[in-house]
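Predict the 3D structure for this chain.
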Amino acid sequence: MRIAVLALQGAFLEHEMLLNKLGVDCFEVRQLKDWQQEKDGLIIPGGESTTQGKLLRELGLLDPIREAIEGGLPVFGTCAGLILLSQKVEGNSPAAPEPPRLGTMSMTAARNAYGRQLGSFHTEASFKGIEGNIPMTFIRAPYIAHASEDVEILATVDGRSVAARQNNQLVTSFHPELDMDTRVHEYFLKIVKRSEERFSRN
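Done. Predicted structure below.
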């Protein structure tokens, strides 16, 4: 198993450290030639979604990554990654042009939804498919405002949806890479493994 980690901006190193802890090979994607390597999945880290979207477009990565995800490549987006994968986003400036996004998940994200007063907080909550509560670190996080029937909500905090899955796509509002708990990454790796098995049978 080999996982690509988008390394244009944000907390990509923390994801790499967790993957290394789990004994999973990974590599950084900074330009198109990196993306052309063999891979079994992709992680899009937290950070600044507008900056990441612009860089994806400028580097010629936006369309190839979107096509791979639509073709079934497993992807895990945290915080900014959730925004980049959402088809629609609430909270963008109405006067500014719509920032570039991958837009592969049938849902609407509310960006910077927790505001400055709740800009950063930590809690524990249940996550569907994982036994016991998991730690959740939020940093000016988005949440899922609306989701289609194709999207399965996996976790909620204070009535807001903060984790979801649509086929091979997984997103969290929080940053599991900032905690020592590896269970959310293990959940994603199970999606990757099932995807490998499905493609190997076809």
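The longest helix spans residues 183-201.
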